[in-house]
Amino acid sequence: MKAIFALLVAAVATSSTLAACSKTQIRAWIKSCDHLSTDQQKCDSRTCHRALHWLTDPETRDCYVSVGLGPVSDLNKYVTLDEFCHASDVHALRLELAAFDAPVNGTTD
C-alpha cells in the first residue's frame, strides 16, 4: 500500500512539474531579453531581469531540453547575463555607499 501511495505521489509531482514546463513560456522569457540590444539594457529591463531568474533555474533548464527546444548549453548565456546583472547591482551599491561615506566640504570625522 505504501509503495502504491509513493508512486501516486511521484506521478502527481511529475505531472505538476510537466504542467509548469511550458515551451511557450520559455520562448517568451528568452524573447523578453533577446529583443534588447545591450547587456545593460537587459539588466535594466524589469521583464528581462525577472525572466533571467527563470532561465537560470535548474527546472526550467531541464524543461528546455525535455520539450525539445535545444541543448541546455543554449541557456548558458542567460546564466552569464544574470551574473553580469547582479555584479552591476553590487557595483552600483558600492558606488552609493562610497558617496555616502565621502567627506562633506573636505572635512573628515
From TrEMBL:
One of its GO terms (cellular component) is extracellular region. Keywords: Signal. Residues 1-19 form the signal peptide. This is Uncharacterized protein. It comes from Aphanomyces astaci.
